[in-house]
Design brief:
By secondary structure, the protein is α/β, with parallel strands linked by helices. It contains 13 helices and 12 strands.
Length: 367
Amino acid sequence: MPEIFERYADEYGPEKIVYVYEPRCGLRGIVVIDNVSAGPAIGGIRMAPDVTTEEVFRLARAMTWKNSLAAIPHGGGKSAILADPATPNKETLIRQFARAIERLEGYIPGPDMGTDEVSMAWVRDEIGRSVGLSKVLGGIPLDQIGATGFGLAVCAEVAQEFAEIELKGARVVVQGFGNVGSHAARYLEERGSVLVGASDLDGTVYDEDGIDVHHLVEVKQKTGRVTDYERGKKMGADAWIKIPCEIFVPAARPDVVNETNALELKCKLVLQGANIPVTARAERILHDKGILSVPDFVANAGGVICASVEYKGGTHKQAFEAIEEKVRENTRDVLSLARSHSQIPAEAALSLAKQRVAEAMAYRRSR
C-alpha cells in the first residue's frame, strides 16, 4: 500500500491514486481521484517539475471540499505532470498524459498552474473531455476571463465586514502575479482597492502610491517579470511578507504562509487565491493575530464553478452569475459560522464541507 494511503486515507478517500510513466518521451505523472460521491471529479492538471504525490492528494482533497461547498455535481480530483511548463516538449507530454488517463472516466481535467486552455484543447483532442477550453471550441477559458480572480473579489466584498476593512482604498499585495493573482488584482481594483505589491518567481515590486494593474499585466506578459515595471521599489521574491496592506492574496504554490513567516504578515484579510497556500499551524497563528483568513475552498472556488457550468454547456454570463451567487453565499455562511462558534474560518468551512460530502456519500450504494 502506498505511503500516501497510510498517512491520509480516511472515510472520504482517496478513491484512486494512479502513476503515469512513459520513458520514451520522459513523461511522469500523478492522478488522485479523491471522492466522486457527488459526481465525476473535476480538478486541474498541474505542471511543475517538483510536484509530489502528497501535494496532489492535498489538492485533490481541497477540490472535494471546494466542490461540495459550491454545491456543484462533481467530486474532487487533481493531477500533475512532473515537468517544467516551459519545456519545448510540452504538447507531447500533455497529449501522452491525456491518453494515459483516458479510462479514468471519473476524472475531468481542467487547467491549473502550468497549463491553460491550449493544454485543455490538446487533452480534449486526445480523449474527448476537459474543461477550461477556448471559446472557439465552445468552452469558457476560465484563466483568460479571470473566473477565479472574480470569485476572490466577490469573496472580499463579503469578508470586508468580518475583517473590519473597506474595499475602497484597501491596499492589496499579491503573491504570485499570474493567471489568478493578476485577475484578482484587477477585479479588486475595480472595487476601489489599490495594488501596492506584487511578486513572482523573479522578485517583488512595491509602490506605496499604487501600481497600475493593467500596465503591470502588460509588463508581465511582455517580459515575464513584475520587476520590469518601471515605477516602484524592486525587492526579492519573498519580500511580499514584509509589505503592509489590508488584503493579502497568496496566488501561487502551497504552504507559502507557514509557521516560519505567518507572524511577519501585515494585513487584515487573507484571500487564498492558490490551493492550500496556508498551513494549518499558520491558520492558527493568523487567527490569534486577528487576521481573517478565508480558506481556499471558499475563496477561490470561482474557477471550478465556471468549469462546472462549462461542462453542462453553459455560457460565460451564466458562469459569472453562478460564481457571484455561490461564492457570496458560501463566504457569508462560513464566516458567520466561524464568528458564532469562535472558530478559525478554515475549521468552520471544513465542518460544512464534510457534512455535505457525507450526505452525498449516504446516497451511494455500498460497493
